[in-house]
Model the fold of this input.
Amino acid sequence: MFESILLLLEQLKQPSLLIRGQYDPVTCEEQVMEFQTKVQNGHIITFQNSGHFPHKEESDEFAKTIVRFLK
Done:
């Protein structure tokens, strides 16, 4: 739990999705930038009315986003 996974991002080869909330106090800009630069086929979605739990705070839009990504 206390080990950074940022070093593992380069190993991701499959399409990957980072979902975060605009008001997320946990996922910092450094982590977002690392994801952008190290994940070859990475996509970032920022929910405008969420904190760290967009799956709870904007559950309908979250579900739609996951389905679109998987298609």
About this structure: The chain has one domain: 15-70. The first strand starts at residue 16 and ends at 21. The longest helix spans residues 59-70.
